[in-house]
Design brief:
This protein has 188 residues and is an alpha+beta fold. 24% of the residues lie in helices and 45% in strands.
Length: 188
């Protein structure tokens, strides 16, 4: 595992021993070509929840490791965390979109950084199906017409902003996206 990836996970501070163990297992013997680590804390009425997403480009795959705080299921007050690893070959990536949001675009100059960046990667890891009862159009018909629906591929999304995450994090996602675009072009 790349030393800089290990350092980025340590700086994020979200259970680094667990995160590094999961990452080492997922990466295996492959070389890390690029990575992006994004830790996020959210607040609601009663609790603080932490999340961390780590994107890794290896020689042949794109990995997404997402870690979340969880609620203990058996003992009151027990704390837990879950880590999910998603993996796709670089050849399986079907598309990539990068949205640049700029506050006060009238003041934007070449070389300035966007206020927010959203990276979406279509990689075929998950699909979502939405079904509803099919009808024939006759309101008095009570026959079973089966179901109709849509199948939608879920993209992997990462959103960062200068206000919430800092300029360095926005630049890091831009750099990661540039490397991803380069490698998916080379593997197509």
């Amino acid at each position: 595992m790349s030393r800089t990836l290990d350092q980025a996970v340590a700086v994020a501070g979200y259970y680094p021993a667990l995160a590094n163990s999961v990452l080492r297992s997922a990466i295996g013997a492959e070389k890390v070509r690029a990575h992006f680590v994004h830790a996020e804390t959210t607040f609601d009425d009663r609790e603080v929840r932490r999340h961390m997403t780590v994107l890794v480009i290896t020689e042949s795959r794109l990995l997404r490791v997402h870690m979340d705080d969880g609620d203990g299921h058996s003992v009151e007050g027990l704390h837990e965390a879950s880590a999910t690893v998603e993996s796709s070959t670089l050849r399986s990536i079907t598309n990539m979109a990068m949205t640049h949001v700029v506050h006060h675009p009238e003041h934007f100059r070449d070389g300035d950084i966007a206020s927010e960046i959203v990276l979406a990667v279509g990689w075929g890891v998950h699909s979502r199906i939405e079904l509803e009862p099919a009808t024939c159009g006759d309101e008095s018909c009570d026959a079973d017409h089966g179901y109709s629906g849509t199948l939608t591929g879920d993209d992997s999304l990462v959103r960062v902003s200068v206000i919430a995450d800092g300029e360095e994090t926005v630049r890091a996602l831009q750099d990661f996206a540039a490397t991803l675009q380069e490698v998916i072009g080379a593997h197509s």
